[in-house]
Amino acid sequence: MLPLTGYADRLSVRPGETIRFHLTNATGAKVEAKLVRVICADANPAGPGILVEPVASAPVACGAAGEERSPRGSHARIEDPGRCFGTGSFSVTCLVHPTRLAGARQGIVSRTGDAARSGFALAIDEQGRLCASIGDGTSMRDVAVVSNPLVERAWHAVWLVMDTDAAEVRVGWAATSPRLGETLPPRTASAALPAGASPAADAPMLLAAVNHALPTHHFNGKLEAPAVFDRPLTGDEIDDFADGGAIDGASARWDFSRGVESSRIEDVGPHGLHGRLVNVPARGMTGSGWNGREMCWRYAPREYAAIHFHEDDIDDCGWPVAFEWTVPEGTRSSTCALMLTAADARENIPFFVVPPKGRTTAPIAVLVSTFTYTIYANHARPEWSRDPRWKADWKAQAAEWGAYPHNPGGHVEYGLSTYNHHTDGSGISIASWHRPMLNVRIGYITYPYPGIRGSGLRHFPADTHLTAWMEAKGYDYDIVTDQELHDEGAEVLKDYTVVATGTHPEYHTRETLDALEAYRDRGGRLCYLGGNGFYWKVALSSEKRGVIEIRRGEGGIRAWAAEPGEYYNQFDGEYGGLWRRNGRPPQHLTGVGFTAQGNYVGSYYRKRPEADDSRVAWMFEGIDGETFGDHGLGGHGAAGFELDRADKRLGTPSHAVVVASSENHPPEAPWVLVPEEHLTHIVTWPGEPAEKLIRADLTFFETPKGGAVFSTGSITFCGSLPSNGFDNDVSRLLANVLDRFLDSRPFEMPDDRG
User: Fold this and answer.
1) 623 inside domain
2) Beta partners for 427?
């Protein structure tokens, strides 16, 4: 745990609204806080360096910071379940699909007292064996353990019977989906009921964890159809259950196929003991009865009656509010940060002040991709754990530059990103900003410099290259985030002459794409200044702002792949994955779309003959030579890392002009086409050789109502703006574009020019 850290309850705030900061502090010293306006968040000494300026108003202290803990692990909680247990004998059944058995104890169904001395737990022990743990008033202990361990990634019927008349505890499991060639008869164990045992303590019941006061021993895997009976099940009933049958007369039975989009679990038994989920486990998961005929949980709910729980799920650290700030009226729209100190500890928490609702305060809107920031939040690079040299280089560079010193790879306690895996190997599909996001920090470095051509920044620090350039060149701009775009649609953009993206606007909802298309088609001027944009489709939780879902379905360059049958979002029931596979390739919006990726290295652009056309020649006023952009803080080149190209079959307008394309990308990257461009190992979807598709296309086109679109096709483009004190060819190019885009003269479609 970090000695001092925190998060904000929102990433964007308007004048008159209040933003609250949740902190934990283990230093023992008082926390001091101040507000700054962030101009540049890049610590690289080759650029302007970290630039901040004080904000006149101060945050208000609300209370002490929280204790040093992070409550990870998803589970379900059912309050006051006593009505379904009765006062004597009871039974518990469940369908279980474990995904990580070795090494740690895991709860399946439990109800224990506050002091963990009474109650029961149906659990899996450290050896992967099913067991019944019973409290006798003085302690909890395993009284019946099945000697044969369960099988990972296979479905089992499990049960626990506490029979007070027979003074016996029985526990067992049967494989309901045995693997090919395996015969697994039911496995059982029984033991005498300890003296003093009771059916349960006067406490809530948990699914997928133990100890309601401070949940621990979280389960990794899927659970389906947990049920409670207020009597001991008979041998025949257990046999029917083990064979896949249902047992009548349950006093509680939770149907996970209901309310998939929510955190509510519904009891279809007589008492209606509905529960709630904690830390957002994955829903809409294939269950024990999935047969592959339907791929969407909405159309075959009984086949998707499972929830996948993980010991490292987290959606909210739950720390107390230590500071808050009500943004004064008239506060300039900009990037801000709360700067924290306590003893020797330092921390910063960035956020964004957006204009008052219904107003603009500048002609340019810079669209900040907070959804992408959240999806990538706490991305632990694989090099951190597998390459000691990489870790040492990262730490050395951070120290040398005075950069942010903490890496997500060293602090998994705050949860990792959707580019990482859970401890059971499944991909992380849910992200939240209600926790420290260590890579969304002033001074954070993504890649160290040794071994590659230049250092690499991504997302928040890299996006401040654009705002620093605008400050240096005197352009007035507002900040608008994708949250406002999602909530308010094109209305939030309607009065801006120009909308400019940052370096990597990758993750979008249907609402944000609709808003940008509407802005463009009404005559707006859109500058897409990044690469790999508008690529993945995400869904937002309707219950909790700041919780975002990604299903990495078929296709796409990705860190993990969703399991078959699990391509549909739980939050909205829509097909997830690539926007391209949802019929909206990025080329349809901006003229270019993701084509290739390499390591964090850059190259240059070469003008194409089309650049001499009068429609676009104005872009290159004051720029000599045929090439430009062979410099920058982003891999030493304006065209690098992730590249987008034009493709008319994917939606690039027929009148679009590719004015320049990148070339000579360093072979040490190495460069790869995105998977959706491959048909076979020798044939690409466009039909061109793979090497010709590895390029960034700098593209321009006009729109019918006097607007236009300018796209750079590269994630490192903005990294070249600060070179030579912002005096360089890329800087001049963007200034030419912005100046013309800010000009009220309408752009004319080629067929309209006479």
Assistant:
1) yes
2) 421
Q: What pLDDT, in 10s, does the model give residues 392-442?
A: 999 999 999 999 999 999 999 999 999 999 999 999 999 999 999 999 999
Whether the CB-CB separation of 502 and 721 falls below 8 Å is answered with no
**What is the Rg, in whole angstroms, of the alpha carbon atoms belonging to the chain?**
28
pLDDT tens, residue by residue, 483-542? 999 999 999 999 999 999 999 999 999 999 999 999 999 999 999 999 999 999 999 999
754, pLDDT greater than 50: no
What whole-number distance in Å separates Cα of residue 470 and Cα of residue 477? 8
Residue 453: which pLDDT band, with cuts at 50, 70 and 90?
A: very low
Residue 179's pLDDT is what?
A: 60
The CATH number of the domain holding residue 673 is 3.40.50.880
- The pLDDT score that the predictor gives to residue 301 is 97
> Cis before residue 149, ω within 30 degrees of 0?
no
Whether the predicted pLDDT of 454 surpasses 60: no
Say what angle helices 460-473 and 729-742 make with each other, to 10 degrees: 70
740 and 617 in one domain?
Answer: yes
* Domain count for the chain: 3
97 and 60 in one domain? no
Type and span of the H or E element at 49:
none
The closest alpha carbon to 434, from 72, 78, 77, 76, belongs to 72
Judge whether 529 and 500 are in contact, CB under 8 Å: yes
Q: What angle is formed at CA 120 by the lines to CA 105 and CA 115, rounded to 5 degrees?
A: 85
- DSSP bridge partners of 189: 171
519 and 610 in a common domain = yes
Tens digit of pLDDT for each residue in 556-612? 999 999 999 999 999 999 999 999 999 999 999 999 999 999 988 899 999 999 999
Q: What is the span of the domain harbouring residue 159?
A: 75-309
Residue 302 and residue 393 share a domain: no
Q: What is the pLDDT of the chain when averaged over all its residues? A: 94
Distance CA 429, CA 441 (A): 22
- Which residues are CB-contacts of 553 (< 8 A; sequence separation ≥ 6)? 561, 562, 567, 575, 576, 577, 578, 581
Residue range 734-748: mean pLDDT, rounded:
97
pLDDT in tens, 315-326: 999 999 999 999
Classify residue 506 by burial, with Cβ atoms within 10 Å: 0-12, 13-18, 19+: buried
* CA dist list (Å): 152 to 145, 155, 253, 438: 18, 8, 25, 33
**For range 190-214, the mean pLDDT:** 86
H-type helices in 133-258, by residue range? 235-242
Same domain, 514 and 617: yes
Of these ranges, 97-111, 176-190, 438-452, the one predicted with the greatest mean pLDDT is 97-111
Give backbone dihedrals phi and psi of 191, rounded to 5 degrees, phi first: -160, 160
Q: How many CB atoms lie within 10 A of CB 40?
A: 25
Q: Is residue 358 part of a domain?
A: no
Residues 435 and 328 reside in one and the same domain: no
Q: Identify whether the C-beta of residue 576 lies closer than 8 Å to the C-beta of residue 553.
A: yes
In a domain, 390, yes or no: yes
Which residues contact residue 502 at a Cβ distance below 8 angstroms, ignoring those fewer than 6 apart?
A: 366, 367, 368, 369, 459, 462, 463, 466, 529, 530, 718
CA 549 to chain centre: 6
Q: Do the domain assignments include residue 360?
A: no
